[in-house]
Amino acid sequence: MDINIDRSLTGEFSKTIWSKFRKSIDEYKMIENGDRIGVCISGGKDSMLMAKCLMRLQKYSNISFDTEYIVMDPGYAEENRSKIVENAELLGIPVKIMNTRIFESTEKAEKHPCFLCARLRRGWLYKTAQELGCNKIALGHHFDDVIETILMGMLYGSQIQTMMPKIHSENYENVQVIRPLYLVREADIISWAEYNSLHFIQCACRITKSEGSSKRAEVKQLLKSLREVNPSVDMNIFRSVENVNLQTLISYHRGNEYHHFLDDFDKGLSVKGTNKFEKDS
């Protein structure tokens, strides 16, 4: 293990990575005493950094929790698998590599292989984490993933939604998903990797190969253009889903409960939530 890589988290990248990682953990109450966390490692920069941060948190914080560092091999090419093992050893991450045949299954899909692959991976990770006694699963999504998801929902899904910092599993009882890098910027993760001369695998899918035409890639390019006009656009998008006035929406739902603005219109509620009829009387 290269100790300088570990030190860089609380040195050069203390403000941009470590502090934001800690803020994500604390602000959204992601980890509690007694947790056993399945840390999902794809081999990319995000999941490797997340694993490194969780190792440091486990060593130096007052929170007592256990971890399992899980690498699911869906059928990687040997060079990609070797790179994951090499980086794990360099970073001192005690990974468990689990072999699956997910790529073989998705190769047979005529349509939407990426959707099927994601679904199979997710199901496998939940099942494996539960078998290992984990009550939480940590994923490496970062700040940029969050704001891209918000825009993708609006532009392509006709809905307002965000990627949540933690959620309950719908199909696996007592299992939660947490995202410890929720407030960490992708540019800072790239800077950390470059500073430490680290090289991680990119998309290792042997089916689609390129993500250049994906909707997420389109949104990334859109955000890049918007930043040139408004440098604050990323944070504005992020905060937009923290500051929602339900009375300015045509309709919304909470679970199966649906609400339309006309349901309360005759009560005289204004946009600010005050009762116009009461004020005028």
From TrEMBL:
<dbReference type="InterPro" id="IPR011063">
    <property type="entry name" value="TilS/TtcA_N"/>
</dbReference>
<dbReference type="InterPro" id="IPR014729">
    <property type="entry name" value="Rossmann-like_a/b/a_fold"/>
</dbReference>
<keyword id="KW-0808">Transferase</keyword>
<dbReference type="Pfam" id="PF01171">
    <property type="entry name" value="ATP_bind_3"/>
</dbReference>
<protein>
    <submittedName>
        <fullName>tRNA(Ile)-lysidine synthase TilS/MesJ</fullName>
    </submittedName>
</protein>
<dbReference type="GO" id="GO:0008033">
    <property type="term" value="P:tRNA processing"/>
</dbReference>
<dbReference type="InterPro" id="IPR035107">
    <property type="entry name" value="tRNA_thiolation_TtcA_Ctu1"/>
</dbReference>
<feature type="domain" description="tRNA(Ile)-lysidine/2-thiocytidine synthase N-terminal">
    <location>
        <begin position="37"/>
        <end position="202"/>
    </location>
</feature>
<dbReference type="GO" id="GO:0016740">
    <property type="term" value="F:transferase activity"/>
</dbReference>
